[in-house]
Amino acid sequence: MRLKSVLLSLSALAALSANLAHANLITNGGFELTTNGTNKRLSYTAPTTADRTTLVGWTSYNGNDGGYNFVLNPGTATTSSSALQLYGNNGFSASPTGGNFFASDPLYYPGYLYQSVGNLTVGASYLLTFDYALGQQVNYTGANLNDYWQVGFGNSVQNTNPLSIDQGGFSGWKSATMSFTATSATQFLSFLAKGSSAGAPPFMLLDNVSMDVMGSKVPEPASWSLMLGGLGVLGFIARRRRNKQA
Q1: Which ranges constitute the DSSP H helices of the chain?
Q2: Nearest-CA neighbor of 200 among 239, 147, 159, 152?
Q3: CA 158, 109, 41 angle in degrees (round to 5)?
Q4: Is 116 helix (H, G, I), strand (E, B) or coil?
Q5: SS3 of 157, please?
Q6: Cβ-based neighbours of 182, under 8 Å, separated by 6 or more
Q7: Which CA distances in Å does 229 have to 7, 144, 211, 226?
Q8: Rg of the chain over all Cα atoms, to the nearest angstrom
Q9: Which helix (H) or strand (E) holds 199?
Q10: What's the predicted TM-score (pTM) here?
């Protein structure tokens, strides 16, 4: 009886974990998928030149074109080979998940980055998480103060905490968590860099965008430990039964 109870509990936890692992509603939230390579400025439509690209699942638009928005790679972002060179030797680092990240200037033709999110339940709450930072383009002077991401989901708008850096500085990566309630089955999620920094040009950075139904996040390490512990108990009971039979 005890063996059956443990087995049923572990089966339920495994099924729940498998379902939760696929809860993310965002397409290409790490910006790894592009149509024409990385380390380039973004286009609103399909790129017609080698120095432009688009992000799969996302649209970059400022009312005219893709805006002064870029998809960059941490390995080249602080070098002269980058389409947009950020200051290095200031603590600059890749985002917590590494790989490509999105960069936008809040002062120079800023453009929205957005995508349509579907399969929503009206009235349900959704948890949005992402990583963000503030850097500065090389060969420009002055501190950058109070720059932030304006985040829209449907008709709701929220702002991240503002970031400030000295000339040539880097804010380090921060994590943001926001809760939104769906008012329709499909809504647009958008990011717009904002600020009025005296220094220029500041660049807001973004990566690791994820959205899930509230309460459906992938289990924390403690949950996995519980599951592994249960497997250990299961093995112990099985060995004990074999010994008794012998």
Answers
A1: 2-20, 221-245
A2: 147
A3: 100
A4: strand
A5: strand
A6: 120, 121, 122, 123, 124, 125, 126, 154
A7: 12, 50, 30, 5
A8: 23
A9: none
A10: 0.80
CA 144 – CA 203 distance, rounded (Å): 9
User: Using an 8 Å Cβ cutoff, are 185 and 123 in contact?
Assistant: no
Pair 158, 165: CB distance under 8 Å: no
Helix, strand, coil shares of the chain as percentages rounded to 5?
Answer: 20, 35, 50
Q: Which of 209, 205, 207, 208 is nearest to 105 (CA)?
A: 205
CA distance 201 to 167: 10
- Per residue in 66-107, pLDDT tens? 999 999 999 999 999 999 999 998 899 999 999 999 999 999
Burial tier of 180 (Cβ tally within 10 Å: 0-12, 13-18, 19+): buried
Q: And the tokens for 15?
A: 């099924």
Q: Tell me the three-class secondary structure of 173-193, residue by residue.
A: CEEEEEEEECCCCCEEEEEEE
DSSP 50-109: TTEE-BTT-EEESSSSS-SEEEE-TTTTTSTTSSSPBP-SSS----TT-S-EEEE-SSSS
Pairwise CA distance, residues 176 & 132, whole Å: 8
User: Looking at the chain, how many residues does it have?
Assistant: 246
What are 191-233's pLDDT values in tens digits? 999 998 777 789 999 999 999 999 754 454 544 454 445 445 3
**What tokens were used for 152?**
């829209």
Place of tokens 């304006």: 150
Beta-strand relationship, 69-72 and 156-159: unpaired
